[in-house]
Amino acid sequence: MRLLLVGQMVIFCTVGAFAQKAPANTITPPDSIKVTQDSIKGDITTTIKYSAKDSIVFHVNERVVNMYGEANIDYGDMSLQAAKTAINYETNILTAAGATDSVGKAIGTPVFKQGAEMYTANQMNYNFKTKKGKISGVVTRQGEGFLHAETVKRTSDEAFYGANAHYTTCDLPHPHFYINATKIKALPGKKIFTGPFNLVFADIPTPLGFLFGYFPTPQKKRSTGSSGIIFPTFGEAREQGFYLRQGGYYLALNEYIGISILGDIYSYGSWAAHVQSTYNKRYAYQGNFSIDFSATRFADGGSVRTDTNPIVGQGRFPRQEPRSFFIRWSHSPAPKQGGKLSASVQAGTSFYNRQNYSTPSNNLSATFNSSVQYQYANPNSPVTFTASMLHNQNTLTKVHNFTLPEATLSVNRQYPFRLFNKNAAGGNFLQDISLAYNLTARNQITNAIQSGTLPGVNLIGGEQRDTSLALNGRNIPTILRNAQVGMRHSFPIAMNSIRILKHLNLSPSLYYNATSYLKQLKYTYVESSNAVRIDTINRFSVASEYGAGASLSTRIYGMAIIKGKRLEAIRHQIQPSISYNYTPNLSTAYGQYVQLSDVVNSTTGMVPYQYLSRYNGFMNAPSGSGLQSALYFTIQNNVEAKVKAKTDTAETFEKVSIIDNFSFTGGYNFAADSFKVQPINAQFRTVLFKRLNIFTSANLDPYQVNAAGRRLDRLLINESSFRFARLTNANLNLDIDLNPDAVKSKKEATRTNRPSLETDVNLQDQYIDFKIPWTFRINYTASYFAQANGTSQTTQSLGFDGSLNLTDKWKVTYNSGYDFLNKALTYTSLNIHRDLHCWEMSIGWIPFGVYQSYSININARSALLRDLKLSRNRSWYNR
């Protein structure tokens, strides 16, 4: 290293191992050279560091330094790398150029960096005093795009002007497409302006262009992008005419949030408005919000299908809402301690998604759920607070259920008898007792019309035809009056398991629940109608229920030693458990029930001993009026095999599950006056060949039925010793997920004749790798239901979906199925995606059904040029 100290200027010269000598006509300064202060200082104001791998030649008289072989210059925030560079201290100019190797290949192409800017060029000249430069054959990145130009002049304000320039989002040295302009001006990190330009594809000029161009190139990446006009798509809808859709303006408010304001217009008079917003703040939250409104008018004059006029209009699709809207909101907080707000909202008018195509899943869905929740939890505290607002709607029945709001305060299990001894870890009866607390306050609102029947009771009014009240200004007061408000206190008391006889685990528990209401039901007998009228009265009351229980469980193991070629042993594990629940008779306690005989004067057509709850249909209503004393049992089975590993030559074994779960549950209610034996539920689950998932369940009823299908209080086993229960319903689900690992051959084919794609770039697009990644999943579902009239119904469906990667550029996804009951294919779709490097192509096809459609899109991948696309589609609403 040679250090030349000149006044306040320090020059570092690092010289590598010299492979060649300096030219004979140059002068290499000796180590003892002495230079006066003013001889080379010039206008340099900071340190210049330079180095070269080959040689550095310092011309003292001309005050020029020449560097050869991987030369590098650093000056402030500027750096320059090239095969050959020179510093002229007299003119304050840096120059750089590339070179060629022995076979004529370009090496050491100059690369200029200053701050966040980087340029690659054939020849560079830069004045480090005026900060101006001239660059030939330049390539530089601007935002999401790349700028190629024959000649670029850089000004002191960091703007540069280019001649014969190409702007593209393709990152190849020779791009697939570009915007060709004779003149261009760029403000790095801000924007690019061009004069007249045209679009060039695969070196073929097209007439597509304009008199000027403007392209924003923000240097700071923002999740919301940049503001700008969104061009609409055009087409024709059969029932609404020609249209312009999804056109408007995108407004980037800041780096966290952006808003799209879009609109649709149709030639028959329909229109729609959309407001969509996305937001994202790192380490805090992210989400999106949209509200859509549509006003629909059809070609036949805007007729709308109604309940009284169901066949108005000649369209193929139902019309029920001339005005409709839909709201979607998703909000996710970042994982952190303390309070968290989350939201998932999907709500709107019942027919919006069927009249206004959005996605197949939304069009096929009949129910939508929404929730907005705030939760506060402190890891150092056992208390958790949650406040929620819930909503669900059924677009077929038009029933809306609101929970506005629901608040929950929970206290985790605490051991009160350990407070006096903080180091206690249990072990005695008192220290194992735990107490928890849950408080739930809820306000439920629904527009559903409650059922007008009670078992054994004649009611005034009869059945209602409609299932719900319309959500309009006339019905809102009625809906609000029917709201249910309640507050539930729950005190579960439990103990840790107690070991009995070394193998049995006993877990006792107690519970007490109290629910406060602001309303009650009042039953009044109307003699003239021999019926009971039910009125809702405003009265504060508390409904209580309590009980006790205990469970006893153990595990039983059985082992069969096989000692086969690979099978070593089979183990059977049985987990039996019994539980007992007791609830006292609350029929006459606390005034929660009233006996029908105390209400009516006549029992014609009624059951006089029936108890009527004052909270029937209320939230968290008491579960029952009579004594509950029930014993339940569960038997779970698990079977595993111990086998030798295939790929291991040593004596190593692995567990293979044969039966994951085979269980039975049932019970017996000692306090019931009839039907004491509870139905039996059976479940079976296993996985075969590590691919095929099998799950089946069945419900068995131990009681007889008469010819009309009505249950009789007589056990089947009393009628026949060979039959103890009858099958009421059953389900079978088979699911197999295939992928290349499931069907790969044991030996891969040799690929010695395979062309080298790394060395021959021209073969990359022609070669197809037949080792294709793919997935294929099949699902079969069957259900059996026994009808009350003695008949049965069986449903079956088969579904499949998967993907196929023909190459790393081609991807195909598909899904379909078959409904055996209706003998028709279910919803079917086929999607093809092609990666075109800087472009992409997607094809979507729904071949049949109500939503039959297709779409073909070819578009630039960059969000900056997202309007540069070619689209062709026929959707279900415009085919």
Automatic annotation (TrEMBL):
<dbReference type="GO" id="GO:1990351">
    <property type="term" value="C:transporter complex"/>
</dbReference>
<protein>
    <recommendedName>
        <fullName>LPS-assembly protein LptD central domain-containing protein</fullName>
    </recommendedName>
</protein>
<dbReference type="InterPro" id="IPR045659">
    <property type="entry name" value="LptD_2"/>
</dbReference>
<feature type="domain" description="LPS-assembly protein LptD central">
    <location>
        <begin position="192"/>
        <end position="703"/>
    </location>
</feature>
<keyword id="KW-0732">Signal</keyword>
<dbReference type="GO" id="GO:0009279">
    <property type="term" value="C:cell outer membrane"/>
</dbReference>
<feature type="signal peptide">
    <location>
        <begin position="1"/>
        <end position="19"/>
    </location>
</feature>
<dbReference type="InterPro" id="IPR050218">
    <property type="entry name" value="LptD"/>
</dbReference>
<dbReference type="Pfam" id="PF19838">
    <property type="entry name" value="LptD_2"/>
</dbReference>
